[in-house]
Amino acid sequence: MSELPNTVSAIAPLEDTLLQLCKAGGDALRLQVLRVLSRDAYTVQELCHILDSRQSGLSHHLKILLSAGLVTKRREGNSLFYRRTYRASHPQLFALQQQLLSSVDQLELSPGLEARLDQVIDERSARSQAFFAQYAGQFQAQQEQMVAFEVYGQSTAELLANSQPQGGDLAVEVGPGDGAFLPELARRYQRVVAIDNSAAMLDKAKETVSQQGLDNVHCQLDSTDIAPASADCVVANMVLHHVPSPVDIFREVATWLKPGGLLCVTELCRHDQNWAREACGDLWLGFEPDDLSEWAAASGFSDGPGVYLAQLNGFRVQVRQFINTAA
């Protein structure tokens, strides 16, 4: 998640920060924390479970990592999440920090740790799926309290039309909701695949497909038949704040897209309206634009065009495109 302003005190002198950075990398458990945080953001309680560590000890290590600028924290409702940071507090230390994190990523996680990490993600996913299974019929009305499709749909369509004026062979929409954006994709791409992990929500999209006669749209619960490097574009409208691990979306989508293909993301900017968790099943209270850019860059994307839409109800929407830079 995004960085808090006081993660590293003011800006510490270069020598102090260098010493903190070297100290932070000199402990096996801290290296494991950094390795785990390469996957996602986690609370202290989740990290304790994943790493099989006591909270008092782990909190001490997190404090050292925070002081070194290697991790940052963000409050989501009543929970405090930790994540890796990708910027150095001093430009002179950027290469060293990146080399440290790159080396950490080569570390192997034990089978037991991997299993506990997967368990945390599965628990998040189960909570999200349970919400949509129960409230699928009411979700659209709840979502429109935040941002209605009419607010961002046109901007998303216009950006996509400008970037891929000829359409293409295959478009994929992740989390299509009630299918409002599927007609736009169906007009411009030879084949469209709509993917959702909630059968109840996917039924809503299927209703739209049937009612509008979208014969080239197929709705499915998984992505197993999407061939690598086959999609011209992938769309994720108001999806990331519902998924257990947003960064995993970027990683998976990168394997689906052709070189030069587009990932189109419409998402809430960071906000503090905690009621969205109960009313809309949100796991995350929006994201800073830099969050999306960092996850995209780490997955092989470059930033494309984007627009920002301010809403009177206190929400701000970012409509973004990312370009797959794979050769």
From TrEMBL:
Pfam families xrefs: HTH_5, Methyltransf_11
All copies of domain HTH arsR-type, residue ranges: 10-108
SUPFAM superfamilies xref list: S-adenosyl-L-methionine-dependent methyltransferases, Winged helix' DNA-binding domain
CDD domains: AdoMet_MTases, HTH_ARSR
Top-level division of the source organism's lineage: Bacteria
GO molecular function: DNA-binding transcription factor activity; S-adenosylmethionine-dependent methyltransferase activity
Signal peptide extent: none
Coiled coil: none
Stated name of the protein: Metalloregulator ArsR/SmtB family transcription factor
